[in-house]
Design a protein that fits this description.
15 helices, 28% helix, single chain, globular, alpha/beta, binds zinc ion
């Protein structure tokens, strides 16, 4: 067996891993980069109007023979661990004959996101798997393991072949709403793992103020309880755990939760996978229609979704009248700025930033909001395991070798774990 990390050995984002056995080549994840060669944020506009050879030439697409459209296929399958763009974002370039394996939740989220984002995955030839049910790709046996992560229905992959066992951790944590999955892994570890490809997103970063998703919910509930005006929560509509935390905090404090059409659509697309996710037809949820979301739905033949939500629709006048009892999940953009212009006095309103703070550093909107009287606070916990949980996992599994991936700090691994083998991008490791 041969392992190649095409990208992701020394960076977060753009993950692409290849495993080769005698007869089989599989690719695990094919993510959009988060940084360019200069370590600056990657601009997905770079993809526009460029051919596959041009994108390979400029190292946007990893150089993987037999993977892309327009060349002879020699890759048997692509596995996608979860629905974050830095793990699936370059899928549209692959040869459409190649089967793409992912969970039902990942498929639903990727397809729903495609309606609202310019960098579409254009999924074709998807085969969905069930967690913990092994499937076979030629001479490899793959077992997806459901993990706790800010990405919904995320998998770690156990890959067995030619007498070797490889575990690709994907992205995971042990402090979210499904933390029990992590504890189960620690108490019933997979045995005889030869190679553990271990994500290390949190290495070199502080752990943050909130240790888990429960702490986020508690803090939000106390903020909602004492507020005198509307609360805006800036978070990703893809972070389903967080949407649930905000919903629960709002419900406990008898607030009406306002979501936008985009969030309503994302949640609706997951209703057959989990009946516990808040939905637009629940009594304490209302939907605000931003023009842009309506247009994107209409452009994709989904105008009927906006009609379906109409019983939950809330207009700006009603929001303005009852601001004290409202919590709104939103994004900072020109439509939002225009919207708050209609709301009148915003003194004492809350702005709660509930995403990775790195994004805020890139486009800081605290000052313009503070000028309008909005108090600003960050309430967030990471989607990734901190150092101590990575160490617990390595100790429980005691793999023969730990390979760093999805980290900017691979050089820290040897000081934390035994038997570390640091790879470079494109380097081949014979297993
Ligand atoms: Zn992720």
């Amino acid at each position: 067996m041969k392992l190649i990390i095409h990208r992701g050995s020394k960076e977060i984002g753009g993950t692409c891993v290849e495993l080769q056995s005698r007869e089989t080549r599989i690719i695990i994840d094919l993510g959009m980069p988060l940084v360019n060669a200069q370590n600056e944020p990657f601009d997905s506009k770079q993809l526009e109007g460029r051919s596959i050879p041009e994108l390979i030439e400029s190292h946007v697409l990893p150089e993987v023979s037999g993977l892309y459209a327009g060349e002879e296929r020699s890759v048997n399958a692509v596995l996608i661990s979860h629905s974050h763009q830095d793990h699936y974002g370059l899928l549209r370039y692959i040869n459409p004959e190649i089967p793409v394996y992912m969970s039902k939740g990942s498929q639903a989220l990727i397809e729903a996101s495609d309606i609202f984002i310019p960098t579409k995955a254009n999924l074709r030839n998807v085969i969905t798997f069930e967690m913990w049910e092994p499937f076979i790709i030629d001479d490899l046996v793959i077992t997806p393991n459901l993990v706790d992560h800010s990405g919904f229905d995320a998998a770690a992959f156990l890959i067995e072949g030619q007498g070797k066992k490889i575990l690709y951790s994907g992205d995971f944590r042990g402090h979210g709403r499904k933390r029990i999955l992590f504890e189960n892994m620690i108490h019933h570890p997979l045995k005889d793992i030869d190679y553990l490809l271990l994500e290390g997103s949190m290495l070199g970063r502080g752990e943050g103020k909130y240790k888990d998703e429960a702490a986020v919910e508690i803090r939000m509930a106390s903020m909602f309880k004492n507020k005198t005006n509307i609360a805006f929560v800036f978070c990703s509509s893809q972070n389903i755990d967080r949407l649930v935390s905000i919903y629960r905090a709002a419900k406990r404090t008898r607030q009406t939760l306002i979501i936008d059409l985009y969030t309503a659509y994302i949640l609706d697309s997951l209703k057959d996978i989990s009946d516990k996710l808040p939905q637009y037809w629940w009594p304490d949820i209302r939907v605000f229609y931003f023009w842009g979301h309506r247009k994107m739905l209409r452009d994709n033949g989904l105008a009927s979704f906006a009609e379906k939500c109409v019983s939950a629709r809330i207009y700006k006048d009603e929001v303005s009248r009852d601001k004290k009892n409202m919590v709104m999940i939103t994004k900072y953009n020109p439509a939002f700025v225009k919207f708050i212009g209609y709301l009148g006095d915003l003194t004492g309103a809350l702005g709660i930033y509930s995403m990775w703070e790195g994004y805020l550093e890139r486009s800081d909107f605290r000052k313009p909001l503070q000028r309008q009287g909005i108090d600003f606070e960050t309430v967030h916990t990471s989607g990734h395991a901190p150092e101590r949980d990575l160490a617990r996992l390595v100790k429980a599994f005691s793999p023969k070798c730990v390979v760093p991936i999805h980290t900017f700090q691979p050089q820290i691994y040897p000081s934390l774990f035994p038997n570390v083998h640091i790879l470079s991008d494109s380097e081949e490791l014979i297993l």
